[in-house]
Amino acid sequence: MGILRITLSFFRNHNQTTLDLSGGLTVIWGENGSGKTSVLEAIHILSYGKSFKTSRQKELIKKGSPSYIIRGVFAKSGVEESIDTEYGLNGFQKTKINGRLISNRKEQVRRNPVVILSPEEQEITKGAPTERRRFFDRVFSVVSTDYLNTLQVFVKTLKQRNALLLRIRDGKTQNSEILTWDEQLAKAGSSLCAQRKEMLEEFVSVLNYLQAHYEEDVEIGIKYKPNLKDSNQYLSLLLKTKDTDVSFGRTTKGPHKDDMEMFWCGAKIRTVGSQGEHKVSLVFLKLAELLFVKEKTGSFPILLLDDLFAKLDLGRSKKLVNLINKLETETDASIQTIITTTDIVNIEQSGILKNSKNVSNHHLTR
């Protein structure tokens, strides 16, 4: 599985750019503003239907253009597949897989997964619980159709209950109407919590495996204590908080408020972690995601590294490269890796080129 070619048309600062990508290692280098990260962003959109940098799609359209178009050619088991995405200033996005227009982003999510390690992702360790929920919900949705379906049902039901709460608060409907939505939300919410707990336990075991294989002591922990044991408990909780929910116009309790707390040597990293500890924790989260997806789907996702070796010191860069090489050796599978950098020397010093048999590079200019 991997991406063979990508074309960006009127995307960010690209007019028309086509890159052929190596099945092993691709290095994209150039000065700041040359559009390196935009290539990774475009691959992410083809894989998941959205950017990892912004939720405002209009920002991605090159100034003066009516829309952007991204075209990618992927390969799996020797079979090629095309994915095209176009987004216009009118706010309409359409995506085609092998020329067939798809109606739901769910069709994209599990086809060509990627793991992105970029500065924007640091909010997973530094930010609010929302950031960690979003990260783990995406990872678990990639490897489990059941999880994705349960999550979508919960989110849809939550929105409908919240809309009803607003109508009750505004005197447009009666309180009794909420019971039906409470029952549906309780069922979906308790199922989501149970699946999250099970998935996270498996994810943590992968994380612990990676830490044991690293060349220095790292102690990263993740704890998730779901507030719900079963649908009856959640239903009772919704009944108790109904007046509060009506007052706020939103559901105040449930798995949409959960956190997967992260720890460094037993202390909450969000509050006491140093910059270096946050960086290392994010790297290990992403490597755990990489191996977790491999174990669940049978194939490594595409690894996208955005100027990583400028963010880590040389010693840790080399140890990271060694760890990636160990993963490939122990699983007897290659990891398609695409790296951006402003300084090709950083890549050479990291040692990642030494063990890569299939290497291509692209120099972008402003």
Question: Termini separation (Å)?
Answer: 31 Å
Shape: globular
The H-and-E topology, N to C, reads as EEEHEEEEHEHHHHEHHEEHHEHHEHE
Radius of gyration: 22 Å
Largest beta-sheet details: 6 strands, antiparallel
Number of strands: 14
Tell me the structural class. Answer: alpha/beta
Specify the helix fraction band. Answer: 40-55%
Low-pLDDT residue spans? none
Tally the helices: what do you get? 13
Q: Which percent range describes the beta-strand content?
A: 15-25%
Walk across the major sheet and give the strand order. 2-1-4-5-6-7
Arithmetic mean pLDDT: 92
Structural account:
By secondary structure, this protein is of the alpha/beta class. The chain contains 13 helices and 14 strands. It has helices at residues 36-48, 106-109, 123-126, 129-143, 145-169, 178-213, 231-240, 242-248, 269-272, 275-297, 308-311, 314-331, 344-350; strands at residues 2-11, 14-20, 25-29, 67-76, 79-88, 93-97, 100-101, 114-117, 220-223, 261-264, 267-268, 302-306, 337-341, 359-363. It has a six-stranded antiparallel sheet with strand order 2-1-4-5-6-7, covered by helices on one side. A five-stranded parallel sheet has the order 8-12-13-3-14, with helices on both faces. It has a three-stranded antiparallel sheet with strand order 9-10-11. Strand 4 (67-76) and strand 5 form a beta hairpin. Helix 5 packs across helix 8. The radius of gyration is 22 Å and the shape is globular. The model has no long low-confidence stretch (mean pLDDT 92).
